[in-house]
Design brief:
The protein is α+β, with helices and mostly antiparallel strands. The protein is built from six helices and 17 strands.
Length: 228
């Protein structure tokens, strides 16, 4: 029941050293019984759960971009930009490549990440990402597991976190457009993507296609999102 604040002065309330099952404000000295602490804790938890339930229906502005919540887990929330932020190749030059070594990953976790303030960057969690082989096209190599702050969704995640093709549709400059996924496509020089109608394309496009869109994703510390 840590983190409770005084009703009088908003000071920190701690266990009393003089009375068992009593609590006292460190600042003004107001005393509270155990029943008050339990009720205060329950109210705080109720508000927290209501705030979590609202996340998927509320946009979040971060780094000057609008983000949508895809999922909430124990201590974190998954967000993706509402729309495509730019068009960019998955990788250049034209060569065999995986997410681990592609130029788009380097860009997202470098130049793109620096668009966020230091305070915002502190809320973004470094996440371990599986990069599975393609199961449809000759087991195309997905590469090693990576650890990223900014990333693209995988094929599996694009299917898991959206309920329909319509939910996956994203726009670039007012027009529905393709957007990259991090998973390999039908060849080692392809990356999977999402079409203009929101359908998932396992075959994908060649990695040098610079007219495919970028829709970054990230995991945020849940408590920081609730506090916004």
């Amino acid at each position: 029941m840590a983190g409770m604040t005084c009703d009088i002065c908003q000071g920190k309330v701690v266990a009393s050293a003089k009375k068992e099952n009593w609590f006292v404000c460190e600042y003004c000295g107001t005393e509270y019984p155990l029943e008050w602490m339990k009720a205060k804790f329950q109210k705080t938890q109720t508000v927290r759960l209501e705030r979590i339930a609202q996340l998927k229906n509320q946009p979040l502005w971060l780094g000057g971009l609008e983000w949508c919540c895809l999922a909430v887990e124990a201590d974190r929330a998954l967000y993706i930009t509402k729309n495509i932020v730019e068009e960019r190749a998955y990788h250049k030059p034209f060569e065999y490549i995986t997410w681990e070594d592609c130029t788009l990953r380097q860009y997202l976790n470098g130049e793109f990440l620096r668009r966020f303030s230091l305070q915002e960057q502190a809320t973004i969690m470094a996440t371990t990402l599986p990069n599975d082989n393609s199961t449809l096209y000759n087991q195309i190599n997905g590469g090693n597991t990576t650890r990223d702050k900014i990333f693209l969704l995988s094929l599996a995640e694009a299917r898991k976190y959206f309920s329909s093709n319509g939910d996956r549709v994203a726009k670039y400059k007012s027009n529905s457009s393709w957007w990259w996924l991090r998973s390999p496509g039908g060849r080692q020089v392809h990356a999977a993507d999402v079409g203009t109608d929101g359908s998932v394309h396992d075959l994908g496009h060649t990695v040098i296609a610079d007219d495919n869109g970028v829709r970054p994703a990230l995991w945020l510390k849940l408590e920081s999102v609730i506090a916004i």
